[in-house]
Amino acid sequence: MQFVIVPGSELPIYRQIMRQVTDALSGGRLQPGDKLTSQRELAEQLVVSPLTVKKAYDELEREGLISTLRGRGTFVTAAAVATDPRQQRERLRPVVRQLLSRARLSGVTVEAVAKLLYEEEQQWNTERKRQS
Amino acid sequence: MNIVDFDNIHRAYQRGADVLNGVTFSIGAGRVVGLVGKNGAGKTTLLRVAMGMLEAQQGAVRLFGLDPRRDPLEVKRRIGFVSEDQILPPFLKVEQVLDLHRGLFPTWDDSITRDLIDRFGIPAQTKIKALSKGQARQVALLCAVAHKPELLLLDEPAAGLDPASRRDFLETSIQLLNETGSTILFSSHYMSDVERLADRIVMLHEGRVLIDSELDELREHYSLALVPHNGGTSRTTLLSLEGCLGARDRSDALHAVFNLEPESTSRLLETELGITDLLCSRIALEDMFIELAGGQQ
Fold it and tell me: Phi first, then psi: what are they for B71, rounded to 5°?
C-alpha cells in the first residue's frame, strides 16, 4: 500500500500513517493477511524518522489491527476487519469534530448541521438508486 | 545512561551578554533531537560546547558521561560532527580526505563510504575546492557518519543547500538511523526537516530552553489563542497566566501560545479573564516558531 504524509500538518506524522492504515482497512483496500511495508523501508520511502514509523506501527499493533511476526514481517490481523460498531463510530469522531468547528466558525448551528447530514444521506440514496 | 547531558550551561562572549543562560537538558540513546530557535538563540554555541570546542563558563556538559574537554579523543572517536561553516582541506581530493578520516577512526566502515559515494555521485578524484556547496556538505556528512558514531552533532547541516541536496541529506540521515540507531542532535531552520527527522524538539530562546517536548505532544498539547483587541486585554496579562509561553501584539489580535490543549486554553481564558470571543486552535511547528521567536508587529 502507498502512504503519503504531509509535514507541517497539525496531525502528527505517526497519526497520519495510522489513519491511512485504518482508512485502507475500512475501505477494503487492506485485507486480513496482507503484508505491510517494513518499518525500515517505510521510513526510507517517506523520509521520516524510523522512530515515527515505529510509533505508528506500535499503536496499530496495540489496537490489534496489525501484528508483527518475527523475521516474517507485519501483517493485517483477522480481527482488524471484524467490525466493532463502537470502534467504527469512534473513528469518525475527529471528522465530526472538524465539521463542528467549521460550522461554529461560520455560525451554523448543530441542528443545521444535522439537517445537512440527512439531506446528504437522501441525495446519496437517490443517486445510488439511479445508478443501479 | 544518557548520551548527552547539558547541566545549567552558561556561556557569554562578552561580560553581561549571555548567549547561553542556564541550558539544561539530556538526550537518551537512540533519540533524535531537533534544536530550533532564531539566529542568535545560542544553538551553534551549545553545539560547540558539546563538541568541547568552547568551554562552558558555568555548568557541565557530558557526552557518554565524559567531559569533552577532559577526554577529547575518547569523545571525538564516538561522535560525528557536521557544521554549516565546516572547512575541508580545499586542495585535497575527495579520496584523500576520506583516507585521512579512515586513519583517524578505528571503526571506519568502507562499505558505508562506498554506498554514500555512489548515492551522492561524488567523483572521488575531484579536489574539494571544485565541489559544489552541496557536494562538499555531502563529503562532510560522509566523514561524519562512516565511522558509525554513537552520536551525531549537526549544526545547520542543510543550510544553504538546494531542496534536492537537502532531501538527499535527510535520506542519508534516516538510513543511518535505520542501520545504526545513532543518537542525533541537530539544529535547523527547516521545520519540515525537523518534523521528518526528529522525535523531540528543544527550542532555545534568549539563551534558555523555552520548549522541550516530544514532537507529537507539541501538536497535541499546545495551542494558539487569538484574543481580540476590543476586550482591552493586554499582552502582560496573558503572559502572567500559567501555561502561556509567549504573546505577541499583532494588528489583527493578540496572539498567545499556551502549553495546553485548545479546549483547556479557551476554558482558562474564560474563567481567568472572562474572554469568550476568542479563537483557539492547535499549532503547527513552523507557526509555533514564528509566534514565539517572531517580532511584535
Answer: -120, 60
Q: Are residues A77 and A90 in the same domain?
A: no
Instruction: For residue A57, give its domain range.
Output: 13-81
Determine the average pLDDT of the residues in B154-175: 86
Other CB atoms within 10 Å distance of the CB of residue A2: 8
Q: What is the β-pairing status of strands B223-227 and B208-214?
A: unpaired
B282 vs chain A: nearest CA distance in angstroms?
Answer: 7
CB interface of A with B, residues 51-90, below 8 Å: 51-52, 55
Does B272 share its domain with B197?
no
Q: What is the pLDDT of residues B86-134, one digit of tens each?
A: 788 899 999 999 999 998 888 899 988 888 888 888 888 999 999 988 8
**CA–CA separation, A115 vs A125, rounded Å?**
15
Q: What's the grid cell of residue A56?
A: 505508528
ipTM passes above 0.85:
no
Chain A positions in Cβ-Cβ contact with residue B190 (cut-off 8 Å): none
Residues A100 and A72 occupy one common structural domain? no
- Measured distance CA(B280)–CA(A8) in Å, rounded: 18
Decide if B7 contacts B23 (C-beta within 8 A): no
In this complex, the residue of B171, B175, B195 whose CB is nearest that of residue A13 is B195
AA identity, residue B184: I
Say if residue B255's pLDDT is above 90: yes
- Chain A residues in contact with B195 by the CB 8 A cut-off are 7-8, 13, 48
- Residue of chain B whose Cα is closest to the Cα of A52: B199
CB-nearest partner of A7 from B178, B192, B282: B192
Structural domain harbouring B231:
222-293
Residues of A in contact with B167 (CB under 8 A): 47
Q: Are residues B141 and B110 in the same domain?
A: yes
Q: How many domains does chain A have?
A: 2
- Residue B297: pLDDT band (50, 70, 90) is very low
- Cross-chain residue pair B216–A43, CB shorter than 8 Å: no
- B249 and B105 inside one domain: no
Q: Which of B196, B198, B199 sits opposite A47 (nearest CB)?
A: B196
Contact: B198, A49; criterion CB under 8 Å: yes
Residues A18 and A72 in one domain: yes
